[in-house]
Amino acid sequence: MPGDLKTKVEHVGPVAVCSFAGDLQMETEAQVRAALNTALGLSPQVLAVDLAGAELFTSSGLNALLQARLDAADLSVPVVLLAPSRVVRRVLEVTEAEGLFPVCADAREAVRYAPTPQAPGA
């Protein structure tokens, strides 16, 4: 069914994981943005977007992801993708956006993108 999307937001250590399964498209864009905003609201050190279950990824899904990247940058939170599906990888490649998002296998690997705390007086 078009517009079918399942979302899940959870904290895995310092990483907020926002998982999507189904269609990231115009009909689900508000749902995608809400889930990403919820994940950022957890004040993570890293925002990991799990797109392994993405079956459809249109410009609306990409726009939501790019906006989340901007919102996260305002909070100094890096955004990484977890195991993006072939469909997602193709859209990122065609739009030349693949270089904007590091790709990790899982949340444990994403932790390496957490900012290193500055020593006092450094």
- Spatial separation of the terminal alpha carbons: 54 Å
CATH architecture: 2-Layer Sandwich
Strand content: 25-35%
Rg calc: 14 Å
CATH class type:
Alpha Beta
Count of runs of 4 or more consecutive helical residues: 4
CATH superfamily: STAS domain
Question: Helix coverage percent of residues?
Answer: 25-40%
Multimeric state of these chains? single chain
Q: Report the major sheet.
A: 5 strands, mixed
- Name the shape in a single word: globular
- How many separate structural domains? 1
Number of strands: 5
Short description:
This protein has 122 residues and is an alpha/beta fold. The protein is 34% helix and 30% strand.
Q: Can you describe what's shown?
A:
By secondary structure, this protein is an alpha/beta fold. The protein has one domain: 2-Layer Sandwich (Transcription Regulator spoIIAA). Helix content is 34%, strand content 30%. It has four helices and five strands. The chain has helices at residues 29-40, 59-74, 86-94, 107-110; strands spanning 5-12, 15-24, 46-57, 79-82, 103-104. A five-stranded mixed sheet has the order 1-2-3-4-5. Helix 1 (29-40) runs parallel beside helix 2. The protein starts with a strand and ends in a 12-residue tail after the last helix. The mean pLDDT is 93.
SSE arrangement:
Layout: E1 5-12, E2 15-24, H1 29-40, E3 46-57, H2 59-74, E4 79-82, H3 86-94, E5 103-104, H4 107-110
Parallel strand pairs: 2-3, 3-4, 4-5
Antiparallel strand pairs: 1-2
Helix pairs in contact: 1-2
